[in-house]
Amino acid sequence: MIRVLRLNVLNNDKIKAFVDVEVNDVRVSGLKVIQGEKGLYFEYPTETGKDGRYYTIVSPVTQELEDEITKVVLEYYNKKK
User: Fold this and answer.
1) Which of 11, 12, 24, 76 is most deeply buried (CB count within 10 A of its CB)?
2) Distances (CA, A) of 5 to 9, 16, 34, 45, 49
């Protein structure tokens, strides 16, 4: 089960919102809804490594799970914005 726990909408040109979700009893905080050239998408939380590059902290293992999380998050964002 996937559900949105928190949505914080921003007035920013690129980052539109921060989202926390629950996926099968695991909370993932800090997803970002982003306005890209081809529409809305979202990114998983990242951290900066010692080399200055960004590394994803959490991401789905299967494409099916990633597609479902994307669907739930973007539908929720579009209803609440």
Assistant:
1) 76
2) 13, 17, 18, 16, 28
- Give the contacts of 11 (CB within 8 A, at least 6 positions apart): none
Task: Report the distance separating Cα 29 and Cα 60, nearest Å.
Answer: 14
Predicted TM-score of the model (pTM): 0.84
* Phi, psi (rounded to 5 degrees) for 73: -65, -50
Query: What is the spatial distance between Cα 56 and Cα 39, in angstroms, rounded to a whole number?
Result: 21
In the chain the domains, ranked by start, together with CATH numbers, are 2-80 (3.30.1120.40)
Instruction: Report H helices in the chain.
Output: 63-80
> In order along the chain (81 residues), what is the average pLDDT of each group of 10 residues?
95 92 94 93 93 94 94 93 77
Question: Quick check: 19 and 7 in contact, CB under 8 A?
Answer: yes
